[in-house]
Specification:
By secondary structure, this protein is of the alpha+beta class. It has a domain at 4-31 and 116-194. Helix content is 34%, strand content 18%. It is built from seven helices and six strands. The protein has a six-stranded mixed sheet with strand order 1-2-3-6-5-4. Strand 4 (153-158) and strand 5 (161-166) form a beta hairpin. The longest helix is centred in the N-terminal third of the chain and has 27 residues, at 28-54. The relative contact order is 0.16.
């Protein structure tokens, strides 16, 4: 089993999901960041609920928090609000909740607080982890990835995979160099690899 976490970071198109692998779970620096992230998500949830209440929807924050599986203190997101809206009878299903209230531009939408790519990668590399960008969809072109240069990164394109590297290097690393036992993984040379796109629900 490989310990890891998925982070959301700001991107020119809105949001990029970054997988962080080989994380030491008891590192206080990491745990502090995760606590701050969960607290920010809860504040966003409070803002969404307040907007819904202002629209006349009979919903409480406790209804939303009850949707967190097992009460494990996970990050509260729009899917939890959507399920609460369905449970209280305000919406027919989750799709209806996003269409009427929670989707971008809808009446109860609140922007998600997101860190930058460099903040997350710096944290993960500081604790000895490896970062991999996930399910890029249509956003994996070299031109789009170069927009991250304002965070002191440059982009190299290697066959079907792009690897974000420090600005001092423009060479390509082979995919085999990204294994857990490789020099790239141990030293953090391979900063972020762009993995095969997969589907993910909205948060």
């Amino acid at each position: 089993m490989i310990p890891g976490c998925e982070f959301s970071v700001r991107a020119p198109w809105g949001e990029l999901h970054v997988l962080a692998l080989f994380l030491p779970p008891e590192t206080e620096r990491l745990q502090s960041f995760l606590r701050e992230t969960r607290a920010a998500r809860r504040r966003r949830g409070e803002q969404i609920v307040a907007k819904l209440q202002g629209l006349g929807v009979a919903i409480q924050l406790e209804d939303v928090e009850a949707q967190l599986s097992g009460g494990d203190g996970g990050a509260l997101g729009r899917p939890h609000v959507a399920r609460a809206l369905v449970d209280c009878g305000a919406c027919e299903d989750i799709t209806d909740a996003f269409r009427r209230y929670l989707g971008r531009g809808r009446a109860a939408y609140v922007e998600k607080p997101l860190p930058t790519l460099s903040e997350v990668t710096s944290l993960v590399h500081e604790v000895g982890g490896l970062t991999v960008a996930a399910h890029l969809g249509d956003h994996g072109t070299e031109g789009q990835l170069r927009t991250f240069q304002d965070q002191d990164w440059t982009v190299s394109r290697c066959a079907t995979r792009a690897i974000l590297r420090p600005s001092s290097s423009d060479s390509c690393a082979s995919p085999s160099g990204l294994g857990s036992g490789s020099a790239a993984a141990r030293t953090g040379t391979a900063k972020v690899s762009m993995a095969t796109p997969t589907r993910r629900s909205a948060a």
